[in-house]
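Hey L., structure's done. Input below.
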Amino acid sequence: MLVTWLIFAFLASLALGRNTRRVCNVPAIGGGEDDGPTINHIFKQCASHSKIVLDKYYVVDTLLLTENLNDVEIELSWTGM
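Output:
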């Protein structure tokens, strides 16, 4: 009985952990300005257990650094101009 309860508690903690993922939306500067530094800043701020949402039109003239990310989902959802 105790083993069943421990397995249930473990699975419940996994399910709850998935729901606590932080969502980070990336604003677009607009006007043809380089959004790369802003995107890199969000990658650093939300580098662990998060979801980064890129849902605007972005101009990127800067190298995007996606290193040192841990359990990060990147959502690209902008579909047209």
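The longest helix spans residues 2-19. Strands lie at 22-25, 48-54, 70-76.

-- N.
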